[in-house]
Write a structure and sequence with these properties.
There is one protein chain. This protein has four helices and five strands; from the N terminus they run αββββααβα. It is of the alpha+beta class and 112 residues long. It has a single domain, classed as 2-Layer Sandwich (Nonspecific Lipid-transfer Protein, Chain A), CATH 3.30.1050. It has a five-stranded mixed beta sheet with strand order 3-2-1-4-5. Helix 1 packs across helix 2. It comes from Klenkia sesuvii. It holds the Pfam family SCP2. InterPro entries: SCP2_sterol-bd_dom (IPR003033), SCP2_sterol-bd_dom_sf (IPR036527).
């Protein structure tokens, strides 16, 4: 199991890379990643090509629902962000869940 600090570093890079992609130019969305084995949710915002306000909060019903939601384990998150695991195969096998509105899914599918 990875630590919360390792996951935060990995997520900041992952979300930052997404935000910097020209295909997502002008996107302003909330994003969250539920890390199941740590029982934490990391929340932030994709705004104008940057990731802003990434912070961890305990998972629970009080956590606001983000526009783009990822659910995975800490180990799978680290493997995804290091390139050892492709997003497509992780999603197809259920190791990662991605939830978003249809418009956001269409924009994200080419990037992931």
């Amino acid at each position: 199991m990875a630590t919360l600090e390792q996951c935060m570093t990995a997520l900041e890079k992952f979300v930052g890379d997404l935000a910097a992609n020209p295909a997502l130019g002008g996107l302003d969305r909330t994003v969250s990643c539920r890390i199941t084995d740590l029982d934490q949710v990391v929340q932030g915002r994709l705004v104008n090509g940057t990731a802003q306000g990434m912070a961890a909060v305990p998972a629970g019903p009080a956590v606001p629902k983000a526009d783009i939601r990822i659910t995975t384990t800490s180990e799978d998150l680290l493997e995804l962000t290091s390139g050892r695991l492709s997003f497509g195969s992780a999603w197809a096998t259920g190791r990662v869940k991605l939830e978003a509105g249809l418009r956001d899914m269409l924009r994200l599918r080419a990037l992931l």
